[in-house]
Design brief:
Four Helix Bundle (Hemerythrin (Met), subunit A); DinB-like; two-stranded antiparallel ribbon; DinB family protein; single chain; DinB/YfiT-like; 156 residues
Length: 156
């Protein structure tokens, strides 16, 4: 890795891999499940998690943020799982090519000017927040045995 971020990346992956574990507990019946009016569906939430983190990482590299990629072509939970796997790999590859100067560079986003390190941390926090929501969704559809909140380092 070009940026000495191995620890941060591994910490992110400990969270991201649990997304796979959660989605493995869901069947097609619940891909469009919404716990309240106006909520993102279970599928939308999973896709939002991975495309948002991807947006943050790409933006850090570019020095400015674009909108997250639009991924709404899924119909089944397996389609959602494939999108999650695709963006996990792409984001992992993008992170591997971030340089220190990009992490230290300041980027304006939502009227906040902050270094890439801040935005990377923000991306992880955003992902964790929504993963917590996904845990709630999965419990609301009746899953009793959910995974741990993070995977152990030897499991990633």
């Amino acid at each position: 890795m070009s940026n000495g971020m191995d620890g941060a990346v591994n910490g992110w992956l400990q969270h991201r891999m649990v997304l796979d574990d959660l989605l493995a507990l869901v069947d097609d019946t619940y891909v469009d499940y919404k716990p309240w009016d106006g909520a993102m569906s279970l599928g939308e939430l999973a896709v939002h998690i991975v495309t948002s983190t991807h947006m943050f990482v790409k933006g850090i590299k570019k020095g400015e943020f674009d909108a997250p990629p639009t991924e709404n072509h899924y119909k089944t939970i397996n389609d959602v799982r494939k999108i999650v796997q695709q963006y996990t790999e792409e984001t992992r590859e993008e992170i591997a090519t971030i340089f220190t100067y990009q992490m230290k560079g300041y980027i304006l986003f939502n009227n906040v000017r902050a270094p890439g390190t801040y935005w990377f941390s923000n991306a992880i926090d955003h992902e964790i927040h929504h993963k917590g929501q996904l845990f709630t969704y999965v419990r609301m559809i009746g899953v009793q045995d959910v995974p741990q909140f993070t995977r152990q380092p030897d499991e990633i």
